[in-house]
């Protein structure tokens, strides 16, 4: 066996002259030392942003919920917009011209036209009127409950039973349980029969407009999501019933304390059982992942309350004992149960609103915010429907439209057809 060859020895490299002042500068943009030419231990830092290529304006979704500067444009828009005022809802009369509602908003210009229309002002006025009707009232306070209101509550209870009959399937996805589509299909199949349970004989043909608003009030079956746009559709459905005279002004307190409360119960069950994805949620910087209107109605309930102030939402005993009587407290309690961590971090806007001195300012600020953040946003309102009961701006101006419609005189068969802001200063 041959002896192993010895590896040739290498002479040590000639040492470079060093001085006490010599250091590797690792804060330059090259990969070698500027003094000795040797490799640096760490990769170079990224190039600084130039004036022609500024840093991105977005923030990571999971950024900590602290010290986010408010959006100046949105803040200014909310401050400058006047708070909507309550309006009486005009009741339609024959000749009726019901037709299938369609989407008419496609751009910001369409939003501007709609916002300036009497239709938009009256719809917002209806929401304010509902809010005023529950002012300083508990949910359990006695109120006039008409047969129509009782029937609507019964319909919503039936939809809750549908959830119990259609359990969620086992799946790995976090959001969007596929069983929701089966629930939505059953709800849609029963929508028109539901309407016919309480509609007077002379306006039963209005189902052509009522059903689309109703079926779009509980989320989207394709995306399996739900958001403030769907909630607005439910308000639009109630508005259409008021336009038909089916819901009268004396029914408004029960419409909130009975109908809307049952609707909120249904939606929370749908959200939890079928894991509906928030539609267009602002994340931690939004008021809530799914809802807006219960905060408006709930803040109206608490106006001039002797003991409970906006800051009372931080008292867990108050939330537990009074959430069944006040919608605002109910919403806060629900948020705290479904979200983990510090309240100020996962809901900074609600936390900031708690610093407003009184509920009247909270209510007015939320109404202004609803107008700007919901009714003036194209991504939300592009899905809103317009028919004869809720006219688009052009229809409101010229008194007619260019869609096929059903014309009814007295309820008989149709006789003709034609072709964030997150600072409390916003709540002033």
Automatic annotation (TrEMBL):
GO terms for molecular function: peptidyl-prolyl cis-trans isomerase activity; protein tyrosine phosphatase activator activity. Keywords: Cytoplasm, Isomerase, Rotamase. Residues 41-58 have a biased composition (Pro residues). It catalyses: [protein]-peptidylproline (omega=180) = [protein]-peptidylproline (omega=0). It holds the Pfam family PTPA. It is an enzyme of class 5 (isomerase). Its main location: cytoplasm. GO terms for cellular component: cytoplasm; nucleus; protein phosphatase type 2A complex. It comes from the Eukaryota. One of its GO terms (biological process) is mitotic spindle organization. Residues 1-69 are annotated as: Disordered. It is found in: Cytoplasm. PPIases accelerate the folding of proteins. It catalyzes the cis-trans isomerization of proline imidic peptide bonds in oligopeptides. Belongs to the PTPA-type PPIase family. This is Serine/threonine-protein phosphatase 2A activator. It comes from Escallonia herrerae.
């Amino acid at each position: 066996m041959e002896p192993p060859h010895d590896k040739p020895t290498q002479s040590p490299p000639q040492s470079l002259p060093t001085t006490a002042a010599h250091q590797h500068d690792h804060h330059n943009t090259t990969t070698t030392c500027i003094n000795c030419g040797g490799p640096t231990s760490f990769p170079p830092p990224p190039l600084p942003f130039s004036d022609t290529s500024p840093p991105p304006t977005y923030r990571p979704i999971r950024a900590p919920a602290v010290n986010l500067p408010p959006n100046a444009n949105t803040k200014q828009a909310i401050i400058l917009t006047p708070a909507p005022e309550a309006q009486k809802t005009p009741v339609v009369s024959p000749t009726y011209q019901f037709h299938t509602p369609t989407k008419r908003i496609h751009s910001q210009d369409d939003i501007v036209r709609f916002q300036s229309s009497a239709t938009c002002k009256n719809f917002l006025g209806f929401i304010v009127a509902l809010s005023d009707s529950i002012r300083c009232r508990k949910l359990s306070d006695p109120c006039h409950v008409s047969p129509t209101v009782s029937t609507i509550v019964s319909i919503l209870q039936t939809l809750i039973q549908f959830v119990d009959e259609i359990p969620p399937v086992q799946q790995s996805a976090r959001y969007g349980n596929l069983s929701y589509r089966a629930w939505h299909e059953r709800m849609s199949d029963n929508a028109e029969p539901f309407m016919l349970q309480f509609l007077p004989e002379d306006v039963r043909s209005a189902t052509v407009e009522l059903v689309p608003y109703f079926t779009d009030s509980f989320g989207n079956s394709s995306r399996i999501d739900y958001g403030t746009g769907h909630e607005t559709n439910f308000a639009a459905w109630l508005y259409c019933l008021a336009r038909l005279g089916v819901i009268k002004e004396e029914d408004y307190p029960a419409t909130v304390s009975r109908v809307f409360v049952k609707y909120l119960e249904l939606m929370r069950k749908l959200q939890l059982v079928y894991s509906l994805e928030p539609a267009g949620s602002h994340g931690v910087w939004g008021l809530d992942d799914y809802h807006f209107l219960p905060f408006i109605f709930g803040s109206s309930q608490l106006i001039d309350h002797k003991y409970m102030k906006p800051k009372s939402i931080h008292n867990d005993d108050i939330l537990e004992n009074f959430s069944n009587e006040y919608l605002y407290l109910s919403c806060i309690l629900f948020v705290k149960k479904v979200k983990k961590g510090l309240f100020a971090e996962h809901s900074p806007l609600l936390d900031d609103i708690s610093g407003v001195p009184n509920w009247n300012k909270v209510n007015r600020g939320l109404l202004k915010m609803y107008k700007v953040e919901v009714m003036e946003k194209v991504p939300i309102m592009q899905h809103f429907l317009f028919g004869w009961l809720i006219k688009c701006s052009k229809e409101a101006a010229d008194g007619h439209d260019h869609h096929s419609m059903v014309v009814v005189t007295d309820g008989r068969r149709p006789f003709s057809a034609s072709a964030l802001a997150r600072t409390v200063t916003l709540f002033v």
